[in-house]
Amino acid sequence: MTARRTSVFTIAPEVSFLDALAEGLLARGGDSPLALSRALVFLPTRRACRSLRDAFLRASAGRPLLLPRTLPLGDLDVDDLLLAGDGPAAGDGLGDEGLAGEGLADDVPPAIPALRRQLLLARLIVSWTRASFGPAVATRPGEDQAVRLAAELARFLDQVETEGLDFDGLAGLVGGEHAAHWQTTLNFLGILTDQWPEVQALQGVIGPAERKRRLLLAQARAWAASPPAGPVVVAGSTGSVPAVAELIATVADLPTGEVVLPGLDRAADEAAWAAIAEDPGHAQHGLARLLARLEVSREAVADWPWPADRPSGPTRSDVIAWALRPAGVTAGWRQAAAALPPDTVARALDGVRRIDCATASEEAAVIALLMREALETPNETVALVTPDRALARRVAAELGRWRIETDDSAGIPLAETPCGAFLRLTAQMAAGALAPVDLLAALKHPLAAGGLAAAEFRRRARRLETAALRGPRPAPGFDGLKS
């Protein structure tokens, strides 16, 4: 691997990533009130961008700051924020050319709206099923199923476009003789390989993932040709998307560019690191691929120099890294354990508890109690990290009994918000032709008022229930209620 200036850093897992990043950026700016505002910081998500602002507030002890411009790589509004071509925002310090240069995106077609793409794909699916099986086949999907299949096709198309791939090798994925259903699948995917490109050309559009990929690559080329004047920092990203990895590589080569990696494992030996690079399921696999793309060795990755007081000796993250090494190199566990000072593992795992619960409700209650216990300590914060959305909702409900509000980083599905639940109940009422249960569920929702005062509307709903919905079931629709 080639040597380059130190532009790639890492922040250890046991250090608060955003707090360390904010502290470092503040220290770099010195006493100049405008130094920080000239920087551009890329973070993985919009939530991370918001959290970085809070981290700056903590690091500055509350004094006013002109913050850097922050952009989310995972949800980047490239049309408005990167390649608008109207020049830089006031004070962004990126030069007269803006972020990418005027007119750079003129040759990139606009992205097709997601709903329009789904409906167009659904129309193609209906046409394909009729041409393949005939209109009288009982198993032919209806329009509603075609819309759901179109959503899955759109997701598949986004994955292919995000990776910068095409469908040229699709037919050769299964060589030799194969089952008849695979040929049917290939014929179905012909919607994407044969028909969809023609539809996009006719509409003059491309997929949103393809447009984002092209614009990110255009941004990388623009910065390579004309580096921005202000500092550019990419922090917290593993570069799992090829176009993002290309942008990160460009930033690493910029005179004012820096890349800050999250928790790089530099303690693994070469055999373990090579196994990690070949194991897509390992947590460090993305970082291994990114370093190979950057042509930077792990030894060349420096510690982000803030904060200065770092934990010394083997830490909990080191023990976890040893435990999670790929199966092919776990034979080194004994040697690694023998080389550690006594009680290292016990000290590293101090405070870690295992609790076995009989049911999901009991699990949620235990977690909620532990979180409540932590919050009873002044100035203490607590977080639940879980991929199980059902568990997260149960824990939030348990905390709600104690009037503890939670900030769910995954958001709340529309159907579970008060407005979404009301709309869902209203639609169910209409679809059920005003069936008594569906009708009362909608009328008794807190948002139902019918233009009246809430108390008056509730009184009328009770009168309707007593007069028309008790006893024999009325006929469907409004006519049934009137009779």
Structure, explained:
By secondary structure, this protein is mainly alpha-helical. Helix content is 49%, strand content 5%. A 6-stranded parallel sheet has the order 3-2-4-5-1-6, sandwiched between helices. Helix 14 packs across helix 15.
Identify the notable features of this structure and list them briefly:
483 residues; globular; 6 strands; 5% strand; mainly alpha; 6-stranded parallel beta sheet; 49% helix; single chain
Give me the secondary-structure topology:
Elements: E1 8-11, H1 17-29, E2 40-43, H2 46-59, E3 69-72, H3 78-82, H4 114-133, H5 143-162, H6 180-203, H7 208-225, E4 232-235, H8 242-253, E5 257-262, H9 270-277, H10 285-294, E6 302-303, H11 316-323, H12 333-339, H13 344-348, H14 360-375, H15 389-400, H16 418-431, H17 436-443, H18 454-468, H19 477-482
Parallel strand pairs: 1-5, 1-6, 2-3, 2-4, 4-5
